[in-house]
Amino acid sequence: MDRFPNAPDVEFHSPLDLSRAAAAVLDAEGRVCGWSLSAQRLLGHPPQEVLGRPADRLVADPGPWLSGLCRAHRPRGKVLDLRCRDGHTLRAAVTFSPLSHQGAAATVVVAAELAALRGWEAQLAMLQGLATESSVGLTVYDTDMRVVWGNVSTDLELAGVAQYVGRPAADLFPEGEFISRHHPPDEDQVMEQVLKTGEPVLGMHYRGRAPADPVREHVWSCSYYRLVDARGEPLGLFEESLDITDRYRAQERLSLLVRAGKRIGASLDVRRTAAELADVAVPQLADEVLVDLPSAVIEGRQPPTRSAPGHSLLRMHGRTPEEFRTSPVSYPPSSPQALSLASGRPVVGPSAPPGEEGPAGRPSDLFVPLLARDAVLGLATFRRDNNPDPFGPEEQTLAVELAERAAVGIDNARRYTSQHVAALVLQRSLLPRRLPEQSAVEVAYRYLPADSRVGVGGDWFDLIPLSGARVGLTVGDVVGHGVHAAAAMGRLRATVRTLALLDLDPAELLTRMDGLVELDPETDQADGLGDEAVGVTCLYAIYDPVGGRCVWASAGHPPPIVADASGSVALSARAPGPPLGLGSLPYENVELNLSDGSVVAFFTDGVVEDRRTDIDSGIDRLAQVLTWQRCPLEELCDRAVSTLPPGPQADDATLLLVRTRRLGADHVADLELPPDPAVVADARTDTERQLETWGLSELSFTAALVVSELVTNSIRYATGPVMLRLIRDRSLLCEVSDNAHTAPHLRRARRDDEGGRGLYLVAQVSQRWGTRYTASGKTIWAELALP
């Protein structure tokens, strides 16, 4: 099938060829004595109208010159305007050729349209230009794929095409190969396909070394066409080749830079960035790339301040964390490596082996310093083993651009490593190293930091001992990552601990936290926290082991999950309040009565939520783990962590498991006292009796003194009954509660003061003392160390 059915016919015979041109024969007197069909087609005159008549009747401007052309003794040509039968004139090229035979004189006249002749001449000039002046190589092969002819361009590439005439095509470029895809890699197969099918193959990229330039590798764009004779039988093949080496390499450089922009420096890891540089540059630019860095850069510290860190460099090996290793290298001052580091410019070999003097190694090595922020971070060495071509100016420029991208990526990775290490140190210093042991609860926890590529997050957790053997439990999350999130976490954790020690209930504590966080944006903008920490969630709970009562409130944080002693799991139906800092809705307390041995799970969203699963599925997964609540808490923590989806974590995951304990009746003694000063003595007596029962008679005097002072104050200022509670825990707790909402203040009494010494004595003999407010009044408490 014709590939171009609408293309005009191309005819390479001359329009003045007798097979195509209009022909006539004139006698010696200039009369027409012969008239061809081609002449009739050209001018429209039938033979009967022109035979025997003077030929000048067919010329628009006849003259005596016509008879002269007819009597000429050699061929002559002229451009004439001929008369057509329809009345118009035709500008034609006319050739007069004299004939002489047995005394008879005649002239053969051949005419063709002048425009057609000029077009044919242009085609001839084009063919001659392709053969003698074109940069496109043209080669003709016979049906056996042997060289028949080549134009001047082919002759120059082959250093003389004559020596290859009659030889197979494979002899032209013995080591060449097609690098285009989706075609046979062998030239003979391509030519056989074109000969067999007649379908041309266009734009194949071929790489090889021309005989005229065997040192430099070239790339040609080759096309193949089948040649056929007038009967349509194959004559051979026609090859068209254009040297596109410069354009091909420019495209390769551009694609290399595009690939480098996507790959180099995306990992924020010094080792991977070095490996990414090698992956991008090999084998397109070099056969091997070596990266040498100071140990400070690898460890995330500031690079050396000297201009040329030529000594004590480490060569990077391996492309994965498992394979990574380093080996020390150093370069003598006279080496090209040292010169490149000192000058900050690329240097082409010969290279000196590390630690040795003198030129050696590969003459085509290219050394490029890794520069970022006016600091020399290291050295990249581009090596060629299979390609002997030296690095040209354009390739050196490309290597410098790749090295610059790698240097920026390495510097970013170094700075990230430094900040990440600092954030880890900061976060670990702010989080509790161990939680204090308490009689009220048994605890276990797991903290899993986010994947290093994401950065350190702002999760925190804490256990805070409170008065009355109670404990405060808190988990929180600062949205964001990095040093700022860790710093914000530390500030908020300290604030929660401070407010908790004031014995505020959970809702009141979160309300105060909300007000404090709401004031922080101006401060955060000044120190950069505003961009890194954009939200805070927090949950705070208080557990009282005397009655098993747990009160909690949440500021945008997932509520705790409770598994009772039987293993049944309960999820809170109460929606959490708004995150801290919004200052909108109030926070509400949620009260729970926990049986002895219940397990309560406090957690951040990193435990139950990731990119692949929603938070509801994660909560169900954690609740399923808590059905095994009879297991040791450490084992429960491991079970919960093992259910997390595999792969890097996008956020910190913090889990705090608490198993509750109750203080039995043998550890707690309650006594209700009427508001009568006379009962102070009874309170002392009952205290001494209870301490004797507990085997703490050594504390009788001190405890009686504390109880006496606290009860006296309550009876003096309260209007209702007074409650005395003694708790035997890790210390002896003395608590006195009344309905007054004012607390006494510690002061130093003067010599002439009649009172004011009671609380001073309590403070002197107690480990701690304080006041907490309740819905019905207040409680003043004091802790005494056990003997």
Summary keywords:
single chain, 787 residues, alpha+beta, six-stranded antiparallel sheet, 21 helices, 32 strands, 29% strand
Structural class: alpha+beta
Tally the beta strands: 32
**Roughly what percent helix?**
25-40%
Instruction: Enumerate how many helices there are, as a single number.
Output: 21
Q: Give the strand order of the largest sheet, numbering strands 1, 2, ... along the chain.
A: 7-6-11-10-9-8
Low-confidence stretches: 354-361, 522-533, 751-755
> Based on CA inertia axes, which overall geometry fits?
elongated
What does this structure look like?
31% of the residues lie in helices and 29% in strands. The protein contains 21 helices and 32 strands. It has 787 residues and is of the alpha+beta class. The strands form six sheets. The chain has a six-stranded antiparallel sheet with strand order 7-6-11-10-9-8, with helices on both faces. It has a six-stranded antiparallel sheet with strand order 14-13-12-17-16-15, sandwiched between helices. The termini are far apart. The model is unreliable at 354-361, 522-533 and 751-755 (pLDDT under 50).
